[in-house]
Amino acid sequence: MRRAAVATVATAMAVSLAACGSAKESGDKAEASKAEKKGPITIGLLLPENQTARYEKFDKPLIEKKVSELTGGTGKIVYANAKQDATTQSQQADTMITNKVDVLVVDAVDSKAIASSVKKAKGAGIPVVAYDRLAEGPIDAYTSFDNEEVGRVQGKALLDELGDKAKSGDIVMMNGASTDPNAGLFKKGALSVLDGKVNIGKSYDTKEWKPENANANMEGAISALGKDKIIGVYSANDGMAGGIITALKGAGFTKLPPVTGQDAELAGVQRIVSGEQFMSVYKSYPQEAEIAAEMAVALAKGEKLDSIAKTTVDSPTTKAVPTVLVPVVSLTKDNINETVIKDGIYTVAEICTDKYKAACDAAGVK
After folding, report:
1. Cα angle 285-208-49, degrees, rounded to a multiple of 5
2. Which of 260, 317, 326, 345 is the most buried (most CB within 10 A)?
3. Is residue 266 within 8 Å of residue 351, measured between CB atoms?
4. How far is 45 from 129, CA to CA, in rounded Å?
């Protein structure tokens, strides 16, 4: 994929999940009787966990910054992180509803469990933007990445790296948490590329996306398959890739098999530079965060989303949700300069610490 794709919203893309129920036009989702919002806008931001570096480092400050820009510095963010607990997130949402925020932006821990809070918000006249994960319930808008494409990018990178050795052994699939609808889409996309072209020796849905759970799963896979049989690992994200690589090293792999990832976490980028991790998926968090902020501010003002969202998706409970999907890029040693460094996600100094300086020089990271 060309890096130019990072800056282009995939607005022509339509995604269909099994659907029932209906969603009204986005402008009608806010209270029809509400005139343009008077006074400061308050947005409740609910993020799912802090195991993955992106939420605290990128999503939260980026959304805060864009809301401030869009409201002339008057917009307020009320923030809560559920630390991977669906019950906690529901309580956080209910508190924000009680405190009468103008809009909720929700990245769900569990897409089904959050539905009751989404319904409460709607009953209170509070629009809901599903962020990064397609929450169930009567949501008003959704922005994320093309999650099946993420899986396809990961699967293709792994298949290309294996080349004519793709059937010479087994690969292990380390998928994300079963409670996260994105994890199923990543898996679906990856399997669309890998099915029939590799031997999948073991496949796991990793509880809570935790690196330690991926580590334990990988140790089990090595024990069951034998280290001489494992030729590659599909890891759905960088955090789990770290746990997987630790397990591989602990088992005595002298040459690590290619391991995929996602999120372009700093540790993942450093592992790519050093050759421990084969690739990650770079997703433009600034673009996703800005779109969520634009949706939230528009909904708080009672405005339609026609100028922001050019396509729709169906959730299991709601049809035709106004949507923006942001494209993704395969990140390898070859394009670190053109992606995470060029876009200001990391500086060369952050990536190329003393431990990685020689590897950075060899890879041309500068």
Report:
1. 45
2. 260
3. yes
4. 10
